[in-house]
Amino acid sequence: MRILEGEGVTKHFGGLAAVHQVDFDIDQGEVVGLIGPNGAGKTTLFNLISGSLPTTGGEIRYKGKRITGLKPHQICKKGIARTFQSAKLFARMTVFENALAASLFGTRRAISVSDAEREAAELLDFVELSPVKTALAKDLPIANRKRLEVARALATKPELLMFDEVMAGLNPTEVAQAMELIAKIRKKGITIFMIEHVMKAIMNVCDRIIVLHHGSKIAEGTPEEISTSRTVIEVYLGE
Amino acid sequence: MFVTVLDVLIGGLIMGGIYALIAVGLSLQYGVGRVLNVSHGEFIMIGAFATWSLYTLLGISPLLSLVICGPVLFMIGFLIHRTLFQYLRDQSESIGAFADSSLLASFGLLFIIQNIALLVWKADIRAYSYLDSSVSILDAVFAVNRLVALLFAVVISSGFYIFLTRTRLGKAIRAAAEDPTTAQVMGVNIHRVLAICFGLGALMAGFAGPLISMIYEIQPTMGLEYTIIAIIVVVLGGLGSITGSLIGGFILGLVGSVVTYFDAGFSLIAYYVIFILLLLIRPTGILGK
Amino acid sequence: MLLATIPLYVQPYLIILLTTILMYVILTVSWAIFSGPTRYISLASAAFFGIGVYTSALLGKSLPLPVVIVAGSLFSFILALCIGLLTLRLRGMYFIIFTFSISELMRNFLLWWETTMTGTVGRWVIIVDHMTVYYIILVIFALVLLTAHLIRRSRFGLALRSIGEQEEAASHIGINATLVKTITFAISAFFMGATGAIMATKWKYIDPRIAFDPLLSFMPVLMAIFGGTGQLFGPVFGAAVFAYLEEILTTKFPYYYMLLFGSILIVVILFLPHGMVGLVQKWLKGGLNRQNANP
């Protein structure tokens, strides 16, 4: 089933087209990568999907229904979650509170505080953050910050999870751990759409990759196809 | 009919010129220094009262006071930034935190400066007459002091505009306003530029004060109203745009003059209504980004 | 409890003083309900208070006191809802300036209206004896404290804090930020309106300058920062201290109190970013650490 599709998605800032006529579709259960040089429009596309930014043109559909124009909290409750490039944690709240907030508000059904607390604790276990659950988010090292972002996103019970450079700033061990976590999430049945610069991760984890450049889609295919595509190599080497 | 229009027009330009000056001052402090200085009006008030004292006690012409008050207030502003606001800036965890704490600190300054003025000059309304004679232009009669004030306001604003666009320091200031991090990388001494900008804001207040005292009555509580007008003009012209503040000042001055013609007490209300509509419809103002 | 029984033992002057102090405490706690966790500094307190005052002045003669107070609260509540829905898109500095403009617009407009249209600037309010005023204020105080406490402990409070920390992330985890902010802002306004309505009866004579005095917007901010916004007790403490100080200073040093206030404000900003409560917490933590360090 098509879980997410975009048709002619466009975003203009003043005279500049940050995203231009991008089409994409993602099937349920897939892990799709989104790559491109800096400034290609990847995060902007995520912002358009999650509702942070209004589109200038085109349409985005989730499970067949139009979501362009909805507010972020509405899109979240429908089942799309995301992480942010610069982890936007609730800095002066504890790790547990960060996850709890998402458990309480992230879904449409009414949930009791004790149930939400239980779920939040389970999620922190899942991302291996339980030992630090009383620490303040701002005091966490970067790898744990990313884990918390993931836990928070997972707490909203998404069917589609969008990662925005979740591996940026991690050392090789941490990257390997992140890849394991992504595999675990995939096993839960969650569809993943991820922006990444860490090529090793993208190539190993994704079923398909979409390439953006100057706001337009220039290539799409399996990791083998993308890594051998002339267009893509030129774009990256040319930068 | 024509005479009335001319009267309102000149009145508007005079107010506009003064508004432009105080708005440019505030814009420099906020746009570059990121300090919303609510005590700006108090600096203006000090300039006005110092001029009054210098004139009534020592017979020094207000025009000469311009040259005295301006630089003195510049130094005071520079020092206050170097000490108080620089410290707060270094202490703050984020830009947002600095914005809040500097706003509150400037409230503190407002209270302190106003109280000092009340102690020195008491709460009475003061005025003096200087260049009280009139001159007629095209059948309309104008007070010389108002025309002189207008002249000086325009000259100072233009001079300042040239300074910002043609001189090296001026360009450094504008660069720092647009993009502080890059400016720093390019070798601009950001701390000094920030303090200078704050000082320049006070300089504008130091120029506006004497001019205001030439035309209007003054009292120690006059500051807040001017601060508010300055804020409105800055937002009207667009935050971050000095040219915008200049243009906005004249626009608001003309609006004020027209409104005052119909009902003297209504101008401030008109300003607030414009301001609120502006914030709701187009917060970036005329020339803002 | 204690406060409720005091009037039986004490002189009228102290009751009046306590009433004024409680007024400031309520304003500060109400202010902190919204501005504390969300970090949106509102300077609209004077507007909400003033609406309460004028409701009292206009309706006090024809309606019973409790109705007047509730009416004043509701009008403020509604104004806050409108402001919230229109403007909580505005952030930071814009929000501060906007809220201040609303208060000032109302003050100047009423001043103009009363002078131009009705001819009288001031209005007389029905007289209520100071004991009744005191008890009503005490009830409002209890209610606002209870509300603040309940909000803090609830999921609503968690949502508010999330918004204050990172509004964009908060909306991405399902929090309808605009709705939450608006409702909280309106709740805070409700109590300010109630306070205004009852204080008008204490003052007996009101005019736009008294009702919408800008100081009523500035002082809660000052007091909350002085006391510390992190805990419930902070604003109460800050307001109590400051209000008491104000009474003493305005009577003993009427010519210097602004100077002192301004200086205290600057000192607090510079050296006590977390307010007095933060300072006390640091001392307590420091004490515990020292104990643990020496086995």
Q: Which class do the helix and strand fractions of chain C yield?
A: mainly alpha
Mean pLDDT level of chain A: 90
- The domain count of chain A comes to 2
Low-pLDDT residue spans of chain A:
none
**Rg of chain C, Å, rounded:** 20 Å
The third-level CATH topology of the largest domain in chain A is Rossmann fold
For the record, the CATH class of the largest domain in chain A is Alpha Beta
The level of helicity of chain A is 25-40%
Strand order of the largest sheet of chain A: 6-7-8-3-9-10
Q: What's the pLDDT, averaged over the residues of chain C?
A: 85
Beta-strand content of chain A:
25-35%
Name the strands of the widest sheet of chain C in spatial order.
1-2
- Termini Cα gap of chain A: 37 Å
CATH A-level architecture of the largest domain in chain A: 3-Layer(aba) Sandwich
Classified in CATH, the superfamily of the largest domain in chain A is P-loop containing nucleotide triphosphate hydrolases
Strand share of the residues of chain C?
under 5%
The low-confidence runs of chain C, each spanning 5 or more residues with pLDDT under 50, are none
- Biggest interface and residues each: B-C, 40 and 40 residues
